[in-house]
Amino acid sequence: MPPVDRSGRTLKLAGQAERVELKVVSSERECRSLEIDRARARTRRVFFLDTPDLALYRHGLVVRIRDHDDRPDDAVVKLRPIGSHTVPKWLRRKNALEVEIDAMPGQQVCSGSLKVRLGRGVVARTWNAGRPLAKLLAQPQRRLLAACGPDRLSLNDLVVFGPVEVRKHKLQPAGFDRQLCAERWAFPDGSSVLEFSTRCPIGKAPEVAARLTAILSAHGVSPSQEQATKTEMTLRYSVADWAA
After folding, report:
1. Does the pLDDT at position 243 exceed 60?
2. 89-103 pLDDT, tens per residue?
3. DSSP string spanning 54-77?
4. Is the pLDDT of residue 8 over 60?
5. How far apart are CA 230 and CA 14, in angstroms?
6. 128-163 burial, b for 16+ CB within 10 Å, e for fewer?
7. What is the pLDDT of residue 242?
């Protein structure tokens, strides 16, 4: 089944979203025929911030900080799903929220992201010095957390989940006219997940999803039984590790 169905349900999810990111989680064993060049992979470390009991996640908020090897680091506060929140007027006026639909087989969710660029190496320096990563959040991001997060939430309440080591590959399989990304996320317990993704305008989502499904199938790649977001899987593993 394609990640976005042809019924139009996804198109009605959020009127202001302009694009869809189509995602398929698969087994790493099945990707050999795609000829992924691991030597050219871009690497990054991904950290998530939340309370020990995931109060932000339960409120539809995700805080993610990424440490890149080849470009400036970044920090994101994400409303997901965006429909469960009243977006503050100041944020709507600034038009600073990037709205996008994430679509996987059997599920779609619309999210709004407030992203800031950090300098190169900022995350590594902060992490290695033992300073709180939450201090890297910009004032508008803190304001968004205060407006949409749990009552009386303090940055001091946030703990770090991760880091997760990520290797990102870009490829363009024969017969597919869009760039395909393959991301391998390696978790501390030794497990890993491989996600294929591509972006397209909302109006082309059903068509591109069908082609993506066909091209992956032609290369022997089938969706895993469990289609969960990388955020969900990371927090699941991290909370279990935290409890241990």
Report:
1. no
2. 888 776 678 888 888
3. -HHHHTTEEEEEEEESSS--EEEE
4. no
5. 22
6. eeeeebbebbeebbebbbeebbeeebeeebbebbbb
7. 53
Give the start-to-end residue ranges of the domains of the chain: 10-243
Question: At residue 151, does pLDDT exceed 50?
Answer: yes
pTM: 0.85
Number of Cβ within 10 Å of residue 55's Cβ equals 16
- What CATH number should be reported for the domain whose range is 10-243? 2.40.320.10
Q: Could you report the per-residue pLDDT of 101-133, keeping only the tens digit for each?
A: 888 887 888 889 999 999 999 999 999 999 999
Question: Which secondary-structure segment (H or E) carries 212?
Answer: helix 205-218
Distance, CA of 101 to CA of 80 (rounded, Å) = 10
What is the three-state SS of 137-200? CCHHHHHHHHHHCCCCCCHHHCEEEEEEEEEEEEECCCCCCCCEEEEEEECCCCCEEEEEEEEE
Contact by Cβ (8 Å): 64, 46? yes
192-201 and 19-26: which strand pairing?
Answer: antiparallel
pLDDT, one tens digit per residue, over 61-92 is 999 999 998 899 999 999 988 877 778 888 87
Of 200, 168, 225, the closest CA to residue 4 belongs to 200
| Chain mean position to CA 203 | 22
Element (H, E) at 222: none
Contact 241, 159 (CB under 8 A): no
Picking from 202, 233, 242, the residue whose alpha carbon sits closest to that of residue 108 is 202
